[in-house]
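hey so i finally got around to running the thing on that chain from the lab meeting. sorry it took forever, my laptop kept dying and i had to restart like 3 times. anyway pasting the input first so we r on the same page abt which one it is
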Amino acid sequence: VTSRALPLRATPSDNSAPYRCEAGPARSAPVRLRVLFPAQSVSISVSPREPRPGHALSLTCRAGPAHPGPELTWIRPG
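ok and heres what got predicted. didnt touch it at all, straight out
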């Protein structure tokens, strides 16, 4: 048996990256990486920008890419 290791430091851009090991001209084995990583950013926007009492408004929460996808939860203190 012969083996060879490929040390690497996984980053979010490695998620679903294809790798293949080849042994001679006739044998190979593929793999796709599943890298777990949190959202790198979260932002909230308000519409309209200056809400008035008694008027409807919309709060939108956006999270950057993550694996698995982020779960967004709204919390209002008190």
